């Protein structure tokens, strides 16, 4: 395991954190939960049919010691969760609606986090991103002052660490969205001991081309500076001008970044998704995430192609986010 995750493991261990895994019968989830419990890092909470989970764990030779299992069909505190859900969704759900909705593992798990019975949630091994994120947006909601959640990847290669955003959620962010993504991504960077130097990316560097797309990015830079005057953020930049000092010296000699950015905000989800996959596949970077940011409590979404190591790592990240709330 890399130094980054060793550091996270040391940071979150011993804090009695509880992380919910709604996909309790999934082999990858079970294996990772068993490891997390055995390593005494946190308490995993598995959601699903108790007998099925226990049988699956036995077949995998996974110990469920220090692992909690909740079945929504016979959860002792369901009345409490139903009342809290109806209150949270005021005017949008009756008690009957709530009882039906909370049988869904993702909604049930999200309510456990909202009701302070857990510190965070990891899902998506067998569900779509929408299935994971929708309950979080409806129940946990975004932090005060944050209009939209966004998703980042931490790109890791040996001792190199970079933040790429938004690679997961917002398809066509406007300038205000991009400014918010930059600020939230800087906060995420600090959680990984990265001192943020934020570059707002485009196909133009400092007005070398003019279009509504480039103006959107340059406006986002100004909005981010107004909201966070101490944050080092600049743009609009082509990637080479943000990352290569010799190119920055020619294209943007007066920029505070000086070709040394470590947080890269892409102008669209299309660009961000392509960018992180190129770094992952051609540059041999490990892509850690997506890590959702901007929510009141941490909820994170796995890729359906994940393995148990991905689950383990995203649980560590979710626990670290809980500590930083």
TrEMBL record:
Catalytic reaction(s) noted:
acetyl-CoA + phosphate = acetyl phosphate + CoA
Q: What sequence ranges are listed for the domain Phosphate acetyl/butaryl transferase?
A: 6-319
Q: What is its EC number?
A: 2.3.1.8
The pathway it acts in is: Metabolic intermediate biosynthesis; acetyl-CoA biosynthesis; acetyl-CoA from acetate: step 2/2
- Gene Ontology molecular function: phosphate acetyltransferase activity
> What protein family does this chain belong to?
Belongs to the phosphate acetyltransferase and butyryltransferase family.
Q: What is this protein called?
A: Phosphate acetyltransferase
- Which lineage? Bacteria, Bacillati, Bacillota, Bacilli, Bacillales
Gene behind the chain: pta
